[in-house]
Design a protein that fits this description.
The protein is α+β, with helices and mostly antiparallel strands. Helix content is 22%, strand content 44%. The strands form two sheets. It has a seven-stranded antiparallel beta sheet with strand order 1-7-6-5-4-3-2. The longest helix has 19 residues.
């Protein structure tokens, strides 16, 4: 769908500003590191899997991710009509920012509209927030305007496909490959709060739900239950903006009030189990302050070997815990 395409052939300010639409602004949070989401833009192999609205496919693509490199994409409609966009990367700053400059054409290769697409990737609670701004300049408003009017919906379904591609890149889809990658990390935070209050934030359901969740506004709680005792279970299930459902399923093995928690947990993306981990939380009182040390030993399964993403996400959650203690 040509409303998805991006370009800038000349200075937009010189081309009938009164006829031009306002910039399109979109954002989406992905359950992955910025490096992974950024990489999904980096090659034709990735772009062919997601860079088109639902029911469209990418039949051809050339992606050379460096300044001046090509970004040429051909989208094929359900009835077989092909729509080309041809352009270049004008800014590439891994893994935080991309700018793509291209033009959409008709079947004869004549430009229909131009746009300037800026994509920013920000590390955030639960993963990566991707903000996209696309500024259009019409060549032929009578043809281009209806196309651009459909851009918000076209991008919505395209980002749904990007969500699935990011899951695939992390090994979160069912495959016949069976593998395991082991990783261990340790994080420490010191909070300006007494140990009893930090313990409550870790073990009381109402207190924990203030910080142990997905990105507000981009994650929907589906189910939560919590029973902190030896043999007790904790379960958290939520749907991300793109439709992917993540599930945290834990069982507690050691509970020493105000001192230590040890639990094992499984993580699922949709129906696939992606990891099994053993986590230890140790609390040390230092006057009116508390130091929390978290150690995790993980087995990442069947292609989901992005252990760094788990460490990063845990760090964000511990920061969110600290913020909840200030309220």
């Amino acid at each position: 769908m040509k409303e998805m395409l991006v370009s800038q052939v000349s200075d937009p300010s010189k081309a009938g500003a009164a006829q031009q639409p306002p910039p399109l602004r979109l954002s989406r949070t992905f359950h992955a590191r910025p490096q992974t989401v950024f990489k999904a833009w980096s090659s034709a192999d990735h772009i062919k899997r997601w860079f088109s609205p639902e029911t469209f496919t990418v039949s051809n693509a050339t992606v050379e991710m460096h300044v001046g490199g090509a970004f040429d994409v051909c989208m094929r409609s359900p009835d077989g009509v092909e729509h080309w966009t041809r352009g270049t990367f004008v800014e590439v700053t891994p893994p935080t920012r991309l700018v793509i400059d291209a033009h959409a054409t008709d079947s004869s290769g004549h430009p229909l509209f131009r746009a300037y697409t800026e994509v920013d990737f920000t590390d955030t609670l639960g993963g990566t927030r991707m903000d996209l701004v696309q500024t259009y300049t019409f060549v032929d408003p009578s043809i281009a305007a209806p196309m651009v009017a459909g851009a918000p919906e076209g991008w919505r379904t395209t980002l749904d496909k990007l969500e699935r591609e990011v899951v695939r890149m992390q090994g979160g889809l069912e495959t016949e490959v069976h593998s395991v990658v082991h990783a261990t990390f340790q994080l420490e935070r010191t909070y300006d709060a007494p140990v009893t209050r930090v313990w409550t934030a870790l073990t009381d359901e109402a207190a924990k739900q203030k910080w142990f969740a997905g990105t507000p506004g981009r994650w929907e709680l589906l189910e939560r239950r919590m029973d902190v005792r030896v043999g007790g279970r904790e379960y958290l299930k939520g749907r991300w903006e793109g439709g992917v459902v993540s599930t945290f399923d834990a069982i507690y093995h050691d509970v020493v009030p105000n001192e230590r928690l040890v639990y094992a947990y499984e993580m699922h993306l949709d129906a696939k189990k992606i990891s099994v981990s053993l986590a230890t939380m140790q609390l040390n009182a230092e006057g009116r302050k508390t130091t929390l040390t978290v150690t995790e030993q993980g087995a990442f399964l069947d292609g989901y070997d992005d252990a760094a993403s788990r460490e990063q996400g845990t760090g964000h959650l511990l920061d969110a815990l600290g913020a909840s203690l200030k309220n």
